[in-house]
Design a protein that fits this description.
8 helices, two-stranded antiparallel ribbon, binds zinc ion, TIM Barrel, 9-stranded mixed beta sheet, alpha/beta
Length: 258
């Protein structure tokens, strides 16, 4: 008798296989997104390589003008080199998600509404011009400093598919059609390894939920970094958890928004 992975061919009907696949898919009750902000060149290249090792897409949120020579460093955690749109297009072609994280990484809440709207629009326009296949209606805008106002959230809601700002809530509901406000948590300025472990543990103890954890760089780069070895070990462990999916934000939402 032919045996496939210990199952007899007689029991492995197409129907049975299909049901097994469906059961596997519906067993996903937790989503973990590591949202890599600011677009550090060195860390982004390494992050993408580590995610690829596990056949995963990384969620990389970049500043439109971060690579330009006249880019003004917005805070003391962003002193190292940013990637450019050559790199972002390459990583996107390799299956990673590249999404907007502001035109120049200004705190949009702390300025007149019109100025903030103009900066968001300039960011989306820059992406449309420089990132292959970029469509605002499929984009998730991650607010710099995870800081937004009700007025800005209201305004941006019909410009992009969704936006990301700071918690609360710490845990998002599982993706649903019409979900456009996503929230995240994060840590720093030192290593986030312990905090991230705790947040993932707490998520997995819930019946269901979607944790978006704001990460930045690897091996000392950016606000609240982690070691590349830690990321490698973490992904290695997470991919073996049946209830969990590791997804970028857009891909998670695309499953429910046609
Ligand atoms: Zn940022």
């Amino acid at each position: 008798m032919i045996r496939i992975m210990g199952i007899s061919a007689a029991t492995l009907t197409f129907h049975g296989l299909f049901n097994n696949l469906k059961a596997n898919e519906s067993s996903k009750r937790h989503i973990i997104t590591l949202a890599w902000d600011d677009g550090f060149k060195k860390s982004s290249i390494l992050t993408a390589e580590i995610f690829e090792k596990y056949n995963l897409s990384a969620c990389i949120n970049v500043i439109a003008t971060g690579h330009l020579s006249d880019f003004k460093i917005p805070d003391k955690y962003q002193v190292t080199e940013k990637g450019d749109f050559g790199l972002w297009n390459e990583l996107k072609a390799r299956g990673h998600e590249i999404m907007p994280h502001g035109y120049k990484h200004a705190n949009l809440k702390n300025m007149p509404l019109k100025d903030a709207q103009d900066l968001i629009q300039a960011c989306l326009d820059y992406f449309a011009k420089n990132l292959n296949d970029f469509k605002p209606e499929r984009a998730i805008f991650s607010f710099p400093y995870n800081d937004s106002s009700p007025e800005l959230e209201d305004w941006i809601s019909d410009k992009v598919m969704a936006f990301r700002t700071g918690a609360p809530p710490v845990i998002n509901p599982m993706p649903y059609k019409g979900q456009f406000r996503l929230t995240c948590v994060g840590g720093g300025p030192d290593s986030i390894e312990e905090d991230l472990e705790q947040k993932i543990k707490a998520l997995l103890e819930l019946p269901s939920g979607w944790l978006i954890y704001n990460t930045h760089g690897l091996n000392g780069e950016g606000y609240g970094p982690m070691r590349s070895e830690f990321l490698d070990r973490l992904l290695n462990r997470l991919v073996s958890i049946d209830s969990a999916s590791i997804l970028p934000m857009g891909k998670a939402l695309a499953g429910v928004i046609k």
